[in-house]
Amino acid sequence: MERYLGRYSEVIYCLMRLMVGLAFAQHGAQKLFGALGGQKVPLTGLMGLAGIIEFFGGLLIAIGLAAGWAAFIAAGQMAVAYFMVHAGGGFWPIINKGELAVAYCFVFLYIASRGSGRYSVDAVIRRQAGGR
């Protein structure tokens, strides 16, 4: 399978970054705007900060603009969320309902390690800067 799909790894990475970033941004939209069945929270405090990181970080990850930095910050937020909200509910993430926070955390760590990728706003900026 790796031989076949490996040819498309950059496209698949771009699609993963796009979909995960947009999904994460939806959590922020719930907190910041009360959209998508969410409840608007005050911008001050941890929930407001979480909404800002989720919405704007998710969008940056999705389009591939400073995605490595945005993903690193988002991974940290998800680690904090896990330990502050979920870990007290038991050891296993499936029991303490923290599996999404764990999954986001490690996907974001992967994105932080890899950066924006070939198909991203960062790549367009690099190509334009090199073409001048």
Please explain how this structure is put together:
The structure is a single chain. This protein has one domain (2-130). It has helices at 2-5, 9-33, 46-63, 67-86, 93-96, 99-114, 121-130. The chain contains seven helices and no strands. The radius of gyration is 16 Å and the shape is globular. The model has no long low-confidence stretch (mean pLDDT 96). 73% of the residues lie in helices and 0% in strands. It is an all-alpha fold.
List the helices and strands and how they pair.
Blueprint: H1 2-5, H2 9-33, H3 46-63, H4 67-86, H5 93-96, H6 99-114, H7 121-130
Helix pairs in contact: 2-3, 3-4, 4-6
The gross shape turns out to be: globular
Q: Give the termini separation.
A: 40 Å
Total strands: the figure is 0
- Total helices: the number is 7
Query: What structural class do helix, strand and pairing data support?
Result: mainly alpha
> Which H/E pattern describes the elements?
HHHHHHH
> What is the share of helical residues?
over 70%
Proportion in β-strands: under 5%
Mean pLDDT: 96
The whole-angstrom Rg is 16 Å
Sum up the structure in keywords.
132 residues; mainly alpha; globular
Short summary of the structure?
The protein is mainly α and 132 residues long.
